[in-house]
């Protein structure tokens, strides 16, 4: 990452509440083509979430603890705060001297921007202001939230406006928390009703909705220079498995999440990505 930070814009997208099994099924069935074209072999990487709900998971991710590969480690991390005894800080890790990645990137010249989605980013109360408060600039509107059937396209429009307003030389770290997968999501499934509520099928339909607009976000992110993108879930959610519903519980469908990172070539030129080899995973 030391070859990337400073030369590339950075994009982190959390598909809030997205389950690994649903994400993988849709990729294999060709139902999310805009995302699948960036996945190695067209498949998501199976990882373990750093938390079982949005607030805890994002606090960890903003400290550099991205979802961990679902295999024995330790796994070298992409980003890490300087911390004595870390077993996962490697030669290629971008190490910062601040407590969180957001301020660490700001310290090396990045403009840090948050486009929030779920309630922990709505800035309507002190708790909903903690995570967006880490960024130099943050955006949230009711149209971005969980009750809006058009939330992601509204977030993409905001991202396009933010990116278009930046000076050409300004590096950007853009974070987008996508609310569409979170309950309620029944309105994304044709024929579903509020009374019937959310289901695994409506969760899948919400991911298809997000994919239809993902190409616009990725194109905007790479519109000024090459961009390194991370797209992942922060946690999954249960739809009746073993009697469980929702998240903030210790069930496998909550802890197991999809993850991918990839380079986006700039639409302004054909600059090649650094030839530093594959990035490894995340651990402590």
UniProtKB/TrEMBL annotation:
It comes from the Bacteria. Residues 10-252 form the Sulfatase N-terminal domain. SUPFAM superfamilies: Alkaline phosphatase-like. Pfam families: Sulfatase. InterPro entries: Alkaline_phosphatase_core_sf, STM4013-like, Sulfatase_N. This is Metalloenzyme domain-containing protein. It comes from Streptomyces bungoensis.
């Amino acid at each position: 990452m030391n070859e990337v930070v400073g030369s590339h814009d950075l994009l982190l997208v959390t598909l809030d509440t997205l389950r690994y099994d649903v994400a993988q099924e849709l990729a294999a069935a060709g139902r999310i083509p805009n995302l699948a074209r960036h996945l190695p072999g067209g498949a998501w990487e199976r990882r373990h979430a750093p938390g079982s709900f949005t607030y805890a998971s994002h606090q960890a991710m903003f400290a550099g603890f991205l979802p961990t590969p679902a295999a024995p480690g330790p796994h070298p991390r992409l980003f890490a705060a300087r911390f004595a005894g870390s077993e996962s800080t490697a030669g290629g890790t971008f190490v910062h001297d601040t407590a969180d990645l957001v301020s660490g990137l700001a310290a090396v010249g990045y403009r840090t921007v948050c486009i929030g989605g779920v309630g922990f980013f709505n800035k309507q109360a002190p708790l909903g202001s903690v995570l967006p408060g880490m960024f130099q600039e943050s955006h949230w509107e009711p149209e971005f939230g969980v009750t809006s059937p058009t939330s992601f396209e509204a977030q993409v429009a905001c991202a396009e406006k933010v990116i278009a307003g930046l000076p050409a030389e300004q590096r950007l770290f853009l974070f987008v928390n996508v609310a569409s997968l979170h309950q309620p999501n029944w309105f994304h499934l044709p024929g579903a009703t509020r009374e019937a509520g959310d289901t695994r099928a409506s969760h899948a339909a919400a991911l298809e909705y997000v994919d239809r607009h993902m190409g616009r976000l990725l194109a905007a992110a790479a519109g000024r220079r090459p961009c390194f993108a991370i797209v992942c879930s922060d946690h999954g959610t249960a739809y009746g498995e073993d009697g469980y519903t929702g998240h903030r519980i210790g069930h496998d469908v909550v802890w197991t999440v999809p993850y991918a990172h990839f380079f986006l070539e700039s639409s302004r030129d054909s600059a090649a990505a650094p030839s530093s080899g594959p990035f490894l995973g995340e651990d402590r």
